[in-house]
Amino acid sequence: MGDEGLFRRVVYLLNRGGRFQEFAKAYAQNDLVANRYGKQVNLFLEKQLLSKNAMTGKPYGPLPTYLPPYRDVLGNPLADPGYGLTLLTHRDILQTKSRTVSNYWLLSIKPENALLVSAEDAQRLGLKDGQKVRVVSATNPKGEWDLGPFGKKPMVGKVKVVQGMRPGCVSFALGWGHWAYGATDIVVNGQVLKGDPRRAQGVHANAAMRLDPYLKDMALTDTVGGSVVFYETKVNLIPV
User: Fold this and answer.
1) Apex CA 108: angle with CA 196 and CA 203, to 5°?
2) What is the pLDDT, as a whole number, of residue 1?
3) Please, are residues 26 and 33 in contact by the beta-carbon 8 Å criterion?
4) Which pLDDT score is estimated for 223?
5) What's the confidence (pLDDT) of residue 105?
6) 172: which strand partners?
7) Which of 5, 36, 152, 159 lies 20 to 30 Å (CA to CA) from residue 169?
8) Strand partners, 159
């Protein structure tokens, strides 16, 4: 509909991610940006200043501030010598965070996830594609989920050597490695409901996340945003 030429130009623009200016035209004299903000930009946040850190009682900084990583809720630096990989998570198009493992159409395409390792790290650590390893950390040196009365589940998965992964990192896709949600047998009113081991395939390594030494039973926390610090835990991969 309409001008076919305009449609193609719009598609071209969207595929590029937007309209871009030549780099040489982006700056004016004295290293000032050529495309200036038309309105005031507030960097001082009064609401932030009037809020206090619940752990220390001190006000939050009202200006953009760099906070060094890998610290407890009191701001004390942490160190885990001997643990050389940073644990990451990612999503896979075939699974979401937890519930889609019950979709057997998806599960038949990709029955389990893997622990993604860069080719450089795999060579350095002597790891091979498809090799089984256990994820261990300073606060979980056994590399297992402690499920209380339901026993323990090891954080063991297969290595997948990839190009493009940042060296020094290991990542696993969420959605696999269940122990509940129909993955194992469960007794209800004396009757055994059989689990499906297909739902237990793969690895879920959140239990390796670094516990805060002050809180003891919680992972490292972003004291400003209130969420868990996901991407700072240092781990090792131990062949099994």
Assistant:
1) 60
2) 54
3) yes
4) 84
5) 95
6) 89, 115
7) 152
8) 115
Q: What is the token pair recorded at 184? A: 């194992």
For residues 112 and 183, is the Cβ–Cβ distance under 8 A? Answer: no
Determine contact, residues 141/93, Cβ cutoff 8 Å.
Answer: no
Reading the block at residue 12, the tokens are 């071209």
Q: Residue 203's CB: how many other CB atoms inside 10 A? A: 22
Contacts of 228 (CB under 8 A, 6+ apart): 209, 219, 220, 221, 222
The two three-digit tokens of residue 8, written as one number: 């193609």
CA 51 to chain centre: 28
Q: Which residues contact 122 (CB under 8 A, 6 or more apart)?
A: 128, 129, 159, 161
Task: Note the pLDDT of residue 104.
Answer: 94
What is the pTM for the complete model shown? 0.79
Question: pLDDT tens, 155-209?
Answer: 999 999 999 899 999 999 999 999 999 999 999 999 999 999 999 999 999 999 9
3-state secondary structure of 157: strand
pLDDT digits 0-9 by tens, 126-169: 999 999 999 999 999 999 999 998 899 999 999 999 998 999 99
Tokens of 47: 């609401």
Separation in Å, CA 81 to CA 106, 143, 236: 40, 17, 11
State the Cα torsion 89-196-145-219 to the nearest 10°: 40
Rounded Cα distance, 87 and 57, in Å: 31
State phi, psi for 200 to the nearest 5 degrees. Answer: -95, -5
Q: Which residues pair with 116 in a beta bridge?
A: 160, 171
